[in-house]
Amino acid sequence: MNRSKSTEASRSLAWVKDGTARVAQHASRLAPAEFAVPTRLPGWSRAHLLAHLARNAEALTNLTLWARTGVEIPMYKDAGQRDRDIQQSAGQAPPLLLADFSETAAVLEASVSAMDATAWAAEVRTARGRAIPASEIPWLRAREVWIHLVDLDAGFEMEDLPADFVDALLDDVGSHFTGRKSFPTLRIEPTDRQRAWQIGDSRSATVVTAPAATALGWLIGRREPQALTAPSDLPSLPSWL
User: What pLDDT score was predicted for residue 156?
Assistant: First the structure.
């Protein structure tokens, strides 16, 4: 793995460690009955969301094993396995669900720690079939733990995200949307940053201003457009992921 990829992976691993601890901290404060409370994701309770994070850790561990051994191990066995496993795991008693989250996160951390330069450079595929270098696995997990911590609706908001993580995710989201015909041309000018994010052709962009985390929240469907400022009505956005 080259130096820039190594730096990116190390930064993402730090975010994963911090985000995992934050999820455990906020979830452990919940009373048993609060695990059944709906999250900000339609159709998912807090138990479903924590179950998803546990199963995601296992799925990403599969990718690290694929990268380390060269034997193809997909994230999920089939298209329906993810949903079936989340539904089953969500039925666990809260103490078992919390332990499941922590234990699967620890297994992923140990497997990542065993990666060498060859493994980091190996090509694997996400559940959507996208080919990626294994060095992106920590970033995929960092996105999961931090964004779903917001979705948990347990006292942590977009504006509480680490500033450098917000910037990295704005880079990622901008890259993801740029070039998509269904996505409007935007220029995100955060009120708390010295830089802007361009999505599409700058000559016809709608300028959007707000704190960086709030603008990010709108782009990924976690904030309403009323939280932002623009010279005209803001366009509707397609789903991020």
Answer: 97
In this prediction the pTM is 0.93
Say how far apart CA 64 and CA 98 lie, in whole Å. 23
Distance CA 237, CA 174 (A): 13
CA pair distance 47, 53, nearest whole angstrom = 10
Element (H, E) at 158: none
Interhelix angle 3-28/163-177, nearest 10 degrees: 110
Alpha-carbon distance values, 197 to 35, 59, 172, 215 (Å): 37, 32, 11, 10
Element (H, E) at 197: strand 197-199
The residues, any chain, with a CB within 8 Å of residue 172's CB and separated by 6 or more, are: 139, 143
| Residue 173: C-alpha distances to residues 31, 130, 196 (Å) | 35, 16, 13
Residue for token digits 């138990």?
Answer: 47
Distance CA(91)–CA(108), nearest Å, equals: 23
Please count the other Cβ atoms lying within 10 Å of the Cβ belonging to residue 70.
10
Q: How far apart are CA 105 and CA 142, in angstroms?
A: 11
Token representation of residue 150: 């917001």
Residue 230's alpha-carbon distances to 39, 167, 199, 206, 240, in angstroms, are 29, 20, 15, 7, 20
Kindly give the parts of the chain with pLDDT less than 70. 1-7, 202
Cα dihedral 95, 99, 102, 105 sign: negative
